[in-house]
Amino acid sequence: MNLEPGRSAFFGAGPAWLFYGAGALSLALLFWGLARRSGREPVGWDPRRWLLLGPLWPVAPVRAVLLALAWWPLWLMALGSALWQAHLWLFPFLRGPLYPGFSWAMDWLGAVFTIACGALFLLRFIVWFKGPAPVSLWALLLGSLTGFSGFVAEAARLSATRPDWAWSSSVGMRLAELWIGGATDTALLVTWWAHAGLGLLALALLPWVRVAWPGPCAPEPPVAS
C-alpha cells in the first residue's frame, strides 16, 4: 500500500525552490505586519479576543460560531502544514496509518474553513448589510477562494495519480470523481500554483484583517495615566 505520494502529486511541475522562496517572503511580511499592528493597536491584540473570541459569544453567537469555524481551522491547518514540512525535512513520521488520518483531518478542516468564510461573506449582504462589515470582506473572499482552490488542486492530483489512500481525502475525492480522464500536467501546475499563491497571499495579509466587534465587544481605548 503506497502512502508516500511522489513530489509530482503535490507540486505538479515547476521548481520547489520558487515555492519555498515565496513562502519565506510571505512569512516575513506576516511578522512585519504583526509588528506594525501590535505597535499601533496594542489594545486590540488581547489573546482572549483574538484566540478564543471570548467577548463575542454572548453578544453575537452566530457571528462567533462562524468566526470560530474559520479562525480555528485556519491555525490547525497551519500546524498541519508545519507537520508536513517536518515530515519532509526532519523525520518522515507521517507513514502507515498516520497519513490517511492526517489527510482526512486536513481535508475536513479545509472544508469547514471554506464554508465558514463563504457564509460570513454572503451573510454580510443578507443579514449584516447595515453598518460596518463584521470582518474585512477582502479577507473572507480571499479565504473562500484559497479554500476552494485547495480542493480543486486536491481533486486534480487525486484524479491524476489515483492513489489507494484517496478515500482519506473525502471532499477532494468527491471532486476528483467528476474530473473524468484525470488531470493533465498543465492542470496540476495551474491549480497547485493558484492555490499556493492565494494561500501565501492570505498569510502575508493576515495581520491586516479587521474585525468589527459589536457593542460591548469593542476594545476600550487606552486610558492615559
TrEMBL record:
<keyword id="KW-0472">Membrane</keyword>
<keyword id="KW-1133">Transmembrane helix</keyword>
<feature type="transmembrane region" description="Helical">
    <location>
        <begin position="17"/>
        <end position="35"/>
    </location>
</feature>
<keyword id="KW-0812">Transmembrane</keyword>
<protein>
    <submittedName>
        <fullName>Uncharacterized protein</fullName>
    </submittedName>
</protein>
<feature type="transmembrane region" description="Helical">
    <location>
        <begin position="104"/>
        <end position="123"/>
    </location>
</feature>
<feature type="transmembrane region" description="Helical">
    <location>
        <begin position="178"/>
        <end position="206"/>
    </location>
</feature>
<feature type="transmembrane region" description="Helical">
    <location>
        <begin position="135"/>
        <end position="158"/>
    </location>
</feature>
<feature type="transmembrane region" description="Helical">
    <location>
        <begin position="56"/>
        <end position="84"/>
    </location>
</feature>
